[in-house]
Design a protein that fits this description.
By secondary structure, this protein is mainly α. The protein has one domain (about 5-210). About 50% of the residues lie in helices and about 5% in strands. The chain has seven helices and three strands, in the order ααββαααααβ. It has helices spanning about 5-20, 25-30, 55-65, 70-90, 100-120, 145-155, 170-195, and strands at about 45-50, 50-55, 205-210. The protein has a three-stranded antiparallel β-sheet. β1 and β2 form a beta hairpin. α3 runs antiparallel to α4 (about 70-90). The radius of gyration is 16 Å and the shape is globular. It starts with a helix and ends with a strand.
Length: about 210
Amino acid sequence: MASIIIHMAVTVGVLDRCGIDTHRDEYLFGTILPDYNFRENHHYKDLIGEKKFFNLSRFRNELGDKLDAPVYIGYYLHLVQDMIFRDFMYNTHGFSPAERENVLKLYADYQRLNGYLADKYSIPVELLKNMDIIPPQRYPDFTLNRSELSEETEKYHNVSICPPGEYSVFTPKMAEDYIRLAGDACHNELNALKGERAHINEHSYSWIRFFK
């Protein structure tokens, strides 16, 4: 649910924090991939009672043998980021996606934030213009929806677009708070993948279903 630019901001920060200097484009591409992937239930959402959650454990069980590959790690970090984002927006800030007007306001705020965040977090936005930089052989379990990515990038994530008006539901302060929280969670999960700590409990970040 976070924008491409916000996902990339979180991942760039985590890569810097971990001192990862190689294959950065692959990590960032993986971070984008879940939102533009043809695979069914590509966000690994499941139900627990009347709530939904991101089933990170299922992802690890299904693709754990590939979680040493940068694209797959990036994909996993996207799921962690989405989990934190929903908790941050739904549970902390009371945002409701069931109201279409709220969603439109959120996307408008993304556009207002893009240039600011791209500059503040040194995001390599040129990657968005050349998805061919990462060959499909690097992610055989997924298929990139290139046409949708191109359309959505132009519509919502072009950093040169900044619509007039004030922030409505997602301010720069909220973006920075979220990026910090998601960065901490992703850093912890990278350590967990290396066996250095326990994995996050995804059930504790579940949310009430807005859509049946």
